[in-house]
Design goal:
- The protein is of the alpha/beta class and 217 residues long.
- The protein is 54% helix and 13% strand.
- Strands 2-1-3-4-5-6 form a 6-stranded parallel sheet, sandwiched between helices.
- Strand 3, helix 3 and strand 4 form a beta-alpha-beta unit.
Length: 217
């Protein structure tokens, strides 16, 4: 049997090792490469031409959401699955809009991760239970992507907002996302405007509160 090639993108070595071992044990799947950030992933995926990529939303080097968008251009026919600690519908919705074909939270069982990989390889869409439930609830409640102030942030603004909530400084955010400090400052100004925050202190406080709430699921 010809094994389908899987590429892993996650900034935690232990996650890549665990997932790689799991996949390599399957009769129909094999890991062909891995990366800890978006720049390395783009380069390797273009060269290795995997059949499917498993990408984390949160990366120290670059943005998972932006990487998904880039991969649509690099390998248009390759499905991407998001494997993330974030189970809120906000990220699931954004990931699917960016071009992902699957979304699995890291709390899910290993069986579901393998099911997601096989499903998207067959052309299906896979959403884990909590992610699917959140999206369905949003639709049934008649909510739009503008349901809350944070939802109104663009993908890039949300990444900057998340990093501020993690305690990262402007220079660190700029280096991680490969942006200039001036560009990050522009994003911060837009975030403050959209969230109706008066100054940098309020921005940091709100970002940290939101990040803590998101981490608790």
């Amino acid at each position: 049997m010809m094994k389908r090639k899987v590429f892993l993108v996650d900034d935690h070595p232990l996650v890549r090792e665990w997932l790689g071992t799991l996949i390599d044990r399957q009769p129909d799947l094999a890991v062909c490469g891995e990366a800890d950030g978006a720049p390395e992933a783009r380069q390797k995926i273009e060269a290795m031409e995997p059949d499917v990529a498993v990408v984390d939303i949160t990366l120290e080097k670059g943005s998972g959401l932006e990487l998904i968008k880039d991969l649509k251009l690099i390998r248009p026919g390759m499905p991407v699955i998001v494997l993330s600690m974030h189970d809120e519908s906000l990220y699931a919705e954004r990931a699917m809009r960016a071009g992902a074909k699957g979304y699995v939270v890291k709390k899910e069982t290993t069986r579901k991760i393998l099911l997601a990989i096989r499903d998207v390889l067959e052309g299906k869409v896979y959403l884990s239970g909590r992610a699917a439930g959140g999206l369905v609830e949003k639709i049934l409640d008649g909510k739009t992507s503008d349901a809350s102030p944070v939802d109104r942030l663009s993908d890039r603004e949300l990444e900057v907002f998340r990093m501020i909530g993690q305690g990262m400084k402007t220079r660190e955010i700029a280096e991680s996302l490969h942006l200039s400090m001036k560009t990050v400052q522009v994003y911060c100004a837009r975030i403050k405007e959209k969230l109706n925050l008066a100054d940098a202190t309020q921005l940091i406080r709100e970002a940290m509160r939101w990040h803590e709430s998101a981490a608790q699921g």
